[in-house]
Amino acid sequence: MRLLLVEDDVMLGKNLQQALQGQNYVVDWVQTGLSALAALQAEHFDLAVMDLGLPGLDGIRVIEEVRSQQLPLPILILTARDSVQDRVKGLDAGGDDYLLKPFDLNELFARLRALGRRNNAAVAVNEIRCGTVVLDTAHHQASYQNQPVSLSRREFLLLEALLNRPGQVFTRQQLEQSLYGWGEEVESNALEVHIHHLRKKFSNDLIQTVRGVGYRLNKEAAGQESGA
């Protein structure tokens, strides 16, 4: 999942970005409300974590603008504003959840998982399954034909994107956006390397190349049992 982090505190922003990346999110971090709106106009995001006390355009106004554009973006408000009035104002503006600073990272992760489940029927549970290929998104574990498979963070993200829409053809750009945030260097053959590794760990036929277009998950290969 791609997540937009809007936080002007540099130390907290860096720490949150690293922690969320460790949970297999692709995280783009901005520090102002205007940058947040620009990011949302330029890219697709699955979730947003929004501070309220931002320089220039504050978080409430950003949320109101997002909702006025009818963007179906789940927004978790993360702020030190702890009065009931502030919480009501944030939720009424269009926030989906509200977490106070200081906070426990595990609670933040759990709330984001809950928002993701509510927003996307494809991840209505923590398990994504296609045939004998299974991803446990809560514990970041994978299995194939009932055997555990060890995946790197980006291999997991790539397989998650493909499993969420089996059979759909994804372009290179779409898949790279699901793996890399802004500012991350992407080698020209990085995507092919990840796909090669996934084919070796699962099945050569699991990910099909659609010439001139991109890649898709082969539902038939995902469903094959060992020895079938």
Question: What does this entry look like structurally?
Answer:
This protein is α/β, with parallel strands linked by helices and 228 residues long. Helices cover 40% and strands 21% of the residues. It contains 9 helices and 12 strands. The protein has helices at residues 10-21, 33-42, 59-68, 84-93, 105-119, 153-164, 172-177, 190-201, 219-222; strands at residues 2-6, 26-30, 47-50, 75-79, 97-100, 127-130, 133-136, 141-144, 147-149, 170-171, 207-210, 214-217. It has a 5-stranded parallel β-sheet with strand order 2-1-3-4-5, sandwiched between helices. Strands 6-7-8-9 form a 4-stranded antiparallel β-sheet, covered by helices on one side. A hairpin with a 3-residue loop joins strand 11 and strand 12 (214-217). The longest helix is centred in the middle third of the chain and has 15 residues, at 105-119. It is elongated.
Keywords:
about 230 residues, alpha/beta, five-stranded parallel sheet, four-stranded antiparallel sheet, 9 helices, 12 strands, about 20% strand, elongated
Q: How is the secondary structure organized here?
A:
Layout: E1 2-6, H1 10-21, E2 26-30, H2 33-42, E3 47-50, H3 59-68, E4 75-79, H4 84-93, E5 97-100, H5 105-119, E6 127-130, E7 133-136, E8 141-144, E9 147-149, H6 153-164, E10 170-171, H7 172-177, H8 190-201, E11 207-210, E12 214-217, H9 219-222
Helix pairs in contact: 2-3, 6-8
